[in-house]
Amino acid sequence: MADILIAMRPNGGNGTILPELERRESTFVSIDRLYPDADARSVELNTALRLTLEASSLVDDAISAQREGNDLASDDCVNRLELLLQELFCCRRLGDGFAIAVNDLSSALRERRGALLQLQQLHAVKGVVDALRARPFMSADAAVGVTELLEAEGLHLTPPELDELTDSFDTSREER
Fold first, then answer.
1. Residues 59-70: b if buried by 16+ CB within 10 A, e if exposed
2. pTM of the entire predicted model
3. Is residue 63 part of a domain?
């Protein structure tokens, strides 16, 4: 039987690497296998697992529709995902990393301002959704690493106006 490298607590604690297992071969263990009894999990974790499964399905449907050339169906799935993320954000007590990843994904979808997501962008969104499902107790640093996938595919996590404002503040500071 494989050792579990990361111990996760269902009460919202972050994962901890166990020193005695650090050098052993690690095996991915699904969150459903770590916490098989839904009654023993917190309400937030149950909700997050249900919603991330639904989100993953929506992104899969968007990718399939995009491949079939059905832009309208793909965009509809993304719009439904945006609504679902609002509910998923209510599970932010799972940890800062979870909240950051959900917020960044929501911001990236909002900042597209109605533009159709390209296939590679949908795959980046899928990567974030899958990370949320697999590691709901991820650290803040891990969440930032995960959401960098979105920026790498040209999705913006902040409004362009905010970037301009930040740049103008930086310029005014340099002039002083």
1. bebbbebbeeee
2. 0.72
3. yes
